[in-house]
Amino acid sequence: MNIVTSKIPGERAKQYAAWLLYCEVGSLEKTLRMWERISAQDDTEMIPFFGVFLGKPAGLATLKRWSVKYRWQERTELKNTEDLEDMRFKFKRIKQTRAYKIAILLDRVLDRLGRQLDQGMYVSTRDLYTLWKMHRVEEGLSIGNYQVITYQEPPAEPKTPEEIELDKKIQEIVSRYHKNNDKEEQPTIT
User: Fold this and answer.
1) Which of 3, 26, 52, 149 is most exposed, with the fewest beta carbons within 10 Å of its own?
2) Is the pTM of this model over 0.70?
């Protein structure tokens, strides 16, 4: 028999509902206790599926037999995996939708601020910073300086003798230039 989370051929609705209840509570004893609580309630509005399909509670021995026959433990693991994947998909979709809405909002606010500037109205740096900060936080990005990436220059190769000689000549010329400028700037007494 293939392990599936849908109703298995030959499995009655009551057995399938009992398995779903087992998935929710986690053990046969808890399933039986919950089933008894559900069947004791006249109002099944709170749990309509279980109230309609479960009916009168079965015994613990019957639950054990069903759990072996219909492989409840393996099916529960599969159901949990499917539910987790479904939640991941929904979360990803919600996150993408949220990011899209935030980008649209950011674009609208930037357009409004641009129109304000075009009309000669004041737009503060604080408004722009707050907008930028909101966008970064919503996207899950850093707003602190401590995570700013800086690139270092690669280590310089050793200079050749010609480059060293040229550096000395340049330094001499620069120092002579500064000496001449200092003499010209000194006031003369007449």
Assistant:
1) 149
2) no
